[in-house]
Amino acid sequence: MDYAKARASFAAAADAERAVPMAHYLRDQFVFFGLSAARRRDLVRPWLRTAKHAPEVGIY
């Protein structure tokens, strides 16, 4: 899973009602999907498992 797929999975699971107070908490400086930490971990877990075994992770 690359960054675009991770972002798409976050967008598909987004909760707009929860995103508003999250954004206000950080003075509307960032965009939030409204995901809880547990839900976000569940969405990223498959991506991290494959990245762990990759010879090089292209973060930069």
Give me some keywords for this one.
60 residues, mainly alpha, 3 helices, elongated
In short:
The chain has three helices and no strands.
Give an account of the 3D structure.
The chain is an all-alpha fold. The chain contains 3 helices and no strands. The longest helix has 16 residues. The protein is elongated, with a radius of gyration of 13 Å. The mean pLDDT is 88.
Low-pLDDT sequence parts: none
Order of helices and strands: HHH
Protein structure class:
mainly alpha
Q: How much strand? A: under 5%
Helix content: 55-70%
User: Mean pLDDT, rounded to whole units?
Assistant: 88
Distance between the termini: 16 Å
What is Rg? 13 Å
Task: Tell me the number of helical segments per DSSP (H or I, 4 or more residues long).
Answer: 3
Global geometry: elongated
Largest sheet: none
User: What kind of assembly state do the chains in view correspond to?
Assistant: single chain
Let me know the number of strands.
0
Secondary structure elements and pairings:
Layout: H1 3-12, H2 16-25, H3 37-52
